[in-house]
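hi!! sorry for the late reply, been swamped w classes. u asked for the two structures so here they r. pasted raw, havent cleaned anything up. first the sequence of the first protein and right below it the tokens
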Amino acid sequence: MKHLKKMLCGSLIAFGTLAQQASAATFVGDRTDFRDETIYFAMTTRFYDGDPNNNVYCWDGVLNVNDPEWRGDFAGLIKKLDYIKALGFTAVWITPIVENGSGLDYHGYHAMDFSKIDHRYVSKESTDADADVAFQTLIDEVHKRDMKLILDIVLQHTGNFGEAKLCRMFQKDYTQDLGDINASMIVVPQSEGGQLPEDYPAMKPGDQYATRLAMMKNSDFTNRDIHNYWHHKAWFDWDDPSRWWGQIAGDCVDLNTEHPAVAEYLVECYSRFIKMGVDGFRIDTAGHIPRLSFNNNFLPQLMEAANSAEAKAKRGDTPFFMYGEVCARSMEVIYRGENYNCSPCYYTWKESKNYPWDYDPTSWDSVVAIPTPTEGSHDYFTVQGHTNWESVLQSGIDDLGHADAILRKSDNALLNGNEYHTPDYSDYSGMSVIDFAMHWNFKSASGAFGVHGQDNLYNDATYNVVYVDSHDYAPDSNYRFEGTQDTWAENLSLMFTFRGIPCLYYGSEVEFQKGKPIDKGAVEALKDTGRAYFGGYIEGDLTVTDFAEYSSATGNIASTLTYPLARHIQRLNKIRAAVPALRKGQYSTDGCSGSMSFKRRYVDDNTDSYVLVTISGSSTFTGILNGTYVDAITGDTKTVTDGTLTATCSGKGNLRVYVLNTSKTPAPGKVGEDGKYLYGTASVDQPWTEWPDETMPEETWTVKPSGGGSGGTVEEPEEPIEPAIEDGEQAIFFENTSDWGGYIYAWIWNDDGNYTGGNWPGQVLTYLGNKIWKWTYTGTETIPDDAVIIFSNGSDQVPGRDQGGFDFVNGGYYTQDGYLKTIEPETTSPRVSMSPNGGDFIESVTVTLKANSVTTSATYKVGNASEVSFTGTTTVTIGEDMEVGESVTISWTATDGTATTNGKATFTKVEKPAGITIYADNSEVQWSPLKIHHFDVDASTWPGVDMLKVAENIYTYTVPDGTRGVVFNNGQGNGSNQTEDYTNLTNNHLYLIKPNGSNKATVEDKGVYGGASIDDLYVNDLYAGIEISLVPGGILVSASVDGMVHISTISGQTRSIAVTPGQTLIDGLEGFYIVNGQKLFVK
């Protein structure tokens, strides 16, 4: 691979030349390591469909209609490499490619044969050799464009359908319908050299799953995995070393990564791809593998393969790069402030001690490891029977907690004043990590920037891979990034200038699927998640001449590339390429006055690059190098003689990037054109037009199979979520111990109504993994103590019919047998939550500040006003004395007597929007919350926004002028949890939401709303003179006039009864009914 340079003439360049614009994304300095790259993460099957003839459905994807899960392919990646290069990215990360087997395996993380490439990326007719050729072609096409390819690999687990060498159970028949488990997954019984019993096909699905699992994990308490290729522990804790050998999900069966034979097999399989020319590995679920196993088993062998002459020649002699996913859903660098050895930074180091290690693969054959029926999560302390397990256990004990004595520290990422120093990599493990602390804090750039104070805990934080969201998570969330566009822009400005390697998840350049759940497994159609098919957005052609430089774009791809965030990314890529210090520089914040400002420097034999950066605000830099600086954003030139430079900057996401002109590395001048977020004096609205064609087209030619079955499992999330509840959250958990199929619903109610909204069976719970589901209340009131719960899957239910419900306990953890325990709120550090947490408001806004339970005292301050102390919860109203366009910041501090934390949010007063004011009557469905999603003009992000309650059961919201339609919903969506699209909108009209059984609710226009309560409107007119009262087993109607009684069941069945003056008893009723607009519970 050639190295790209900008050919300049060193100190001979005149100052007049310094301010000229650098062309394209031309690289200054050699691309010597992976910090020179920026990464675009494409989920292959969901990115672009290059060969429509190879599309395949998964057998568990029942909700995916006209959208085969296996839709994108190698051909699609090749066709759209130019698009990725046009954005300015130099590397592509793709999901795993080995042969998979599970009910939803489109993502590639459920391996059943590590030694071959899944033919579904190529064609049904492909041979193994054809698949190899197709992947080699992809690698070669990437390299042809001076780009690099990162392959996602899995070392920690297989799927639950065995593995071809380690435990053969099935042979995949690619000639059959791959969406039909019975047709395509051919059982290999013991009589034919496999591991499954002869009667396996006749078993029930649940028994089939248990049989498969027992072959790998000895889960039936019989020694079946005689070579110990898998771990056999049944339980683990997310927050301690037991996570190293516990099964994280039903579809992720954990391999014995301490076994030399397992390691050698995996290394052999993946070394093949290294020698084909892949440039790096992203290692999945690395945090569930002991670091000792990486340092002894995997990393040395993989690097040996990467340093082979064959592999280096294929890569163009560039260094091979590995980074691990050490999942840490935590805002702290030390995972939740607790265990160092569960933290990403821990994995960047070699061992600090020598532990015994047995490399003889046959030594495991004498070990009998059978789980006990009563073992608990902390039974990892009983792991024994092999040197390697005992060494891992000892290392886990040695590095437990976070005492300063066990923390390894480095200054590799940090400047010494202004001086760059040679990094010391003698203790580097060879694997860098995804920066989960930044990731989890990226709700704001300032939050993400705030974690740099512990960068010395990484061997070298400049190698951290940094992203905002991914195929698994968003910042402290399971939804694709929901922040405003300028928040996205600010996050990107930090990512591309601060330490670390920037990475972007596909579609984020156009805020694709903003606010949608990232992954809901089988309970949500992929088109409604963060893993939707992106191909429609990039249909069209273009000509690419360099990174972030293209012409002749047509169709939807032209609109995508000119979207404001996409333009922002292109310019950031150009700037980063032009300044080596932004790519590989050590950094310091000393002498940098801005809230997000820093200096960086990188030096080698041919380079001396020094830069000053400030984000979203001005900064004065003191104690800096003297010389001539040129801003890469504006071209402004400043000559420094006293070690001080002031950079003036305003606008969220805007930058000033003052580059020192040195003899080795001259400043590039202004790089790129001004736009919406990067500019000199004023934001520039660059041309953008809506996509001319369908962005999310259906695929109608692939036949969805009707056969098959799930093999007895529900699709597990890639990284199951442990049950947890936050301070102030109202939530419950349900463990599906009886293995019900389908979704789990909760119906929570008392005599005053139900808290799950809508019709029976209530709201779908969110699946966390490992049979555990969670329901979170989205309403505002506190659920009372007399509320009860029914759990069901739409047919089975607990408690049984006519048996009432389980008592509601906030944080309660239930099984089919009832309440088991309470999950207590996480209270790791003092915090204050604000609602709303910043943003725009009209006229005034009341902000609620709530201190969590460990906070002993807290303060808040509005703007420059005096601090106000409070405990518990308080409110403050702002805005009445503010002008439109004016902003104010509310800041807070919280302490528990030992630790102190702080935060802030900015609120901006805006004009009241013109639009259509509509009212909704919630009396019949009783949804909580009541949300409205409006579309076409300034469309809201599903499920929309909360409507404002103005009277009992009456809510209002003003939608933008030109709005085509709305959908009312309760935040859940699907079926009876939302209305049909309603498009006949009239200003100031009231719309009644009417239940419609299990179908979408209907909307009825009730005419102009006059501002009265519901009792003064049509309900009283319709039912005047009719009173309803409850009697045992029925209702008593007292009428003074002729009239009608309308009775609706919670399933939507309706009955109308004519009544005459006097009393009428209607009996034989039991349960919930809506009677003349009133919701009643008949006992």
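now the second protein. again sequence first, tokens right under
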Amino acid sequence: MVGLTLLLAFANSFAQTTGHVPSDHRGDPNFRRKSNLDGNNLRASVFNFGFSGRTTARPDEYAYEWPKNTRRLYVALAAIWLAGEVTDKNGNIIQVVDFPTFRQSPQGKTWNLEPVPGFVNPDEKDKNLARSDLPASWPTAAQGGWRDKRSDPVDPGWVGSWNGFFGKNIFNADQEMFYRCSDDLYTRLPYIPDETDPKRGGLGLLMDVRAFAWSQVLINDAVFFIHDILNDGTKRIAKTSFLIWLADIVGNDSADDQPFVDLQTSIAFLTDADRVGTEEFQGTPVGVASIKYLETPGNEVDGIDNDGDADAAENAKVLSQITNPDAIAPLFKAADFQPRSLKAGDKIVLIDSLTFERRVIAYPQNGGRVKTLGRFFDLPAQGIALVEDTTANLIDDDLDGLIDERETLHLKRFDEISGTVRPVRYINYLAFAPGDTIKRGFIVKGKAAKQSYTSVAPMIDESRDDVFDNDNDWSGRQDDVGLDGVEGSGDPGEGDGKPTSGSGTDFPGEPNIDKTDVSETDLIGLTSALQDPAFGINFNTVADDFIWRKFMTPGRFFIPRQTGEFDTYVSSGYFPMEPGQRQRMAISVALAGGGVTKNDDLLSAVEKQKQARNAYEADYQFAQAPLQPTVTAVTGDKKVTLYWDDVAEASVDRYILRIIGPAAARDFEGYRIYRATDPAFEDAKVVTDAAGNPILLRPLVQFDKKDGIKGLHPADIRGVKFDLGNDTGLLHSFADTTVVNGQRYFYAVTAYDFGLQAVNLLISPTETSIRIDVDPQGNIKLGSNVVVVRPEAPVAGYLPAGVTKLEHTAGSATGQIGFKIIDPRRVKDGHTYEIAFQDTIIRDRIPGRGLDTLTTKNFTVKDLSDGAIKLNQSTKFKQGDEVPLIDGFRLSFVNERRVELNETLSRWSKAEIYPYQFTPVSFLDVVGEQRPNDYRLIFGDVGIAASRDTIISSARVPLPGKRVNFKVVNAADGSAVPFAFGEIHGSDGRFSINPNDANETDIIFFMERGTGNRLNFTWQITLNLKAGGRNPQSGDTLYIFLRKPFLSRDVYRFTMRGEKADNDSAKKALNRIRVVPNPYVAAERWEPLNPYSSGRGPREIHFINLPQKCTIRIFDVNGALVKKLEHDSVLENGTAIWDVLSKDGLEISYGVYVFHIEAPGIGQKSGTFAIIK
């Protein structure tokens, strides 16, 4: 029970961190890795040493690009600095600053944050850091799995599982990255942070970093970074500060950038002065970048509600449990920031420097010396006036038990949610009596006080390391999943009815407590913000104390909104860090644009950051998109066919499951298909929000589940509502016949859900992301639901795939079977298939009547050529059903509902004969079987046949045998069908009806053999009167045709013909070879976007309708060979593309050129074309 042991070690909360045992996790620069964060509309490179963006102008490193694949850049880098003030081994107070990169010793060794091994697969070929969407990047069994999960008693190392923020194999984001890095290689200064390892440098810090991207429409233009920093040494860091460093490149240049910071909203903005970017922006106005500081470190020891959340609406129930909260935890007043005039007998509060316990005493009668937070105060007998220092010195300067209360932060705190300025609460230690001791974060006296909602301060000095659900939002029904965060794994704490915290462990713990509940941090906010000229720091030579003083000291603000190349530095500090304590820094980066003015873009960015904050305050937990489909594309002549799997339809939304239940969690609703000619899908992003900013893609087509959930979802997305579809029904293939040959197209098939429409909860639908990564060389990596294609005419002599023959080898079903070739490449030439059916009985809807009938139950398809079962007992046989794909083709069925008369085909041989009535036998208690046969009733002279001598019904009504003027035959094989004859009209053996009495009609009872060769009554025929009619006579025939579903007796066989190229046909098609465009003038629509930062992009001339294999030679008019092209393609592509470069790789000049095409075994073709620049 390793997990429980760790939990017990931390059961007494904050003070226990002093017993921390350092780990052996150390940094290694050999494990440096890079991946692209591209799970939504942004793309940026992420490095596993506290850095994102680009370290240099390398083509394989991406500054923050938006939209992705457009090469439109905004943020050059975002990186974190970690710093602390400590006492070195010589007794001097020094400052240590950790940088992510750019620093090395004179000997060339790294002085940077470096990745810790055990959090990436070192053998992964592309050298990615660990990504949720790339299992090959995860640590393998050979490494022992994830290094921080090897102590899991149930599943050591979590081998083969994702090490998710919320737990094992929990994929909460569309893309998540995770790494751990260490500062131990920074050995420049004489400070040893870890007494167990004298060689360890830096501050003894380990940093876990997670990067998130969600495709959810409200935050699909934002990415998130969570920095979780652990003091893994043995020494307290008395003053700590974290800083986020930003460098801009808005509009792909930086000379005219205008960065600024809005302290009220905690957002740094990066803007462009004139909104004019480089050629990558193609004349569109440059947008803005915004970086929001979602989470800063917390100060859980100062006695102050730094983030003002004690009065938040969601915490009302916590505050309400406190007796007289306005006395013991009052709001600050202006008088609280006046000097304290103290005299003998007045209360003063002393703070223990290790436990942060408060002890209330009286001011000594004769004065004296007191110690608080390790600092001595001399108190004169005549009294003293004490003033709280306005800088964050981490000292209680006025002996009221509060550390660093400041009027600007605590009396006039700007509340971002309400947009108002209001005071925050604090623990009123002066309300206690002299002699009382109050534990950190408590509002009751006594060292033995236990945590409860009546003893702990309401969301004041809350901590994510105190093993207490500060905001009381843990739910036993929803959250009791154990230490690994996953239900059903049997790990420590699961199902025990108590919150299980991950504090003090490398496990996430349960939702809504400590590590997984961001609300349980008493955020101190931003304490400094500066701009400084870019490239102004020499990281190798700059002194740490200079960085500390200039950039990381609270109260320093210099943000003049100047134009030029300036970096932005925003920090949060000071706060102490005990050994074993964690602090966090989280940011969101959001991009916005498309507005008429820059202010429009700024407002849009603020709105996106509001949604980012909502995500943060929801602990990054919200509705999840369905699983991603896998799509395949088939090109044809002016046609693109897509088909995809149905994996998304089994999706379970874990968030909805947790808050609502399993029925609502299976919320898949449909598919959307998007088409674009650019990899950013910009030409499909035409749905705008209320402010006119493009926000959504318009689908080319949509397939909506037939479930009554349709129309516009009521949730509002910035003035737009999500269209759920029109109950069209689901399909898994689509043929686009509106394409142009030669044009490159990108298609994405997304799955979406129906969101949630509950009484007090409205959640908009979510949709799977579109993943495309185009590198600077134009190479394309695609997600499973995205394809890039170029439709072309097929090769010369192309013969399409199809069915050679379909035989109904057994049975007499009257339904129809259709074939549709979806992917001709997969059709197996010459393979013969067999379709067999099973049937079942449909019971009569009227009980007791007995009119049961047969119908189809299922069908099976077998490949007779190799014995493989392709479909087993499928029930997709109704008209309109989509049959699963089989070897590139899809069957379809038009089936009959039941066995019944086909009134359209059934007829008399002559129109004047009286009408017949054909029904199952119905005589007293006898109900005939509905045999699926066709019949002929042939008339001649009396004696042509004889009826059976039998009885009918339990009443034993006799039907004597006699010679008659008709016979009944089975139309399928001509065999005689036995029958009985009930002669009502006359006695001459002739089948007839009384022309004067419609009730006097003879009855023919069909009798057909069944089980045990026994004759059973099946159908009966009677006659009806009509004006001018007559009875049947010799020479007449009644043709009876039944509608017959596919039944067990039915067997079909068919043989498939694969696609191929026929040389004889290809010879005849040589005269169809063309050069397009001809002439070529400057550019052509199908040419891809220029991947280079300058110069002419790729050009293309297409040779179309070519044989499958041929050689193309291009000459100038003087006969000199310009280029030789070898064409050897798939059957669907009869096009060769020339990049308009000579054989020497040079651009050719304008003029007339001659081409010659030689196809072995087929022939030759020559012609001319022109190029006009």
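hope this helps!! also noticed smth abt the second:
The longest strand covers residues 73-87.
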